[in-house]
Design brief:
single chain, mainly alpha
Length: 139
């Protein structure tokens, strides 16, 4: 029974991770970075800084999201409970997953812009005109 639950947890984790991250992070983040770096008036150096800052922020949010999912699923399947309790716990997971995905975007976009400002050493608001649009994407 314990081995079966561990296998189910492993399968659920990888299936969720692949499907959710592809749809919510792996494809949209590079597109958002490209959108910000290409459509906002920047010189080549600033575009490169935007790519690096967005990449670092995106990877950080990806890793933190996957780590949260791993801990959450491991905790759900690690409980010594009957199958009914397990199913109820799993039913509570999707709303939390959606909240975490939204929080990752709400933290990741400003983090990328903050890294850009920190590296650039100045705040030029015209270079950050994509931030409101990127935050509206998740709404």
């Amino acid at each position: 029974m314990r081995k079966r639950r561990r296998r189910l947890a492993h399968q659920l984790f990888w299936n969720l991770t692949w499907r959710l991250e592809l749809f919510t992070h792996i494809v949209p983040v590079p597109i958002s970075i490209y959108f910000s770096a290409i459509l906002v008036p920047m010189n080549p150096r600033q575009s490169m800084i935007a790519f690096v800052a967005g990449g670092i922020s995106g990877v950080l949010m990806l890793v933190l999201g996957v780590l949260w999912r791993y801990v959450r699923i491991r905790r759900i399947f690690g409980r010594k409970a009957d199958d009914l309790t397990l199913k109820k716990s799993l039913l509570h997971h999707p709303p939390l997953e959606g909240l975490v995905i939204a929080l990752r975007w709400l933290v990741g976009v400003p983090l990328a812009h903050a890294m850009f400002i920190a590296y650039e050493g100045q705040l030029n608001l015209s270079l950050h005109s994509s931030a409101p649009f990127l935050l509206l994407i998740i709404a």
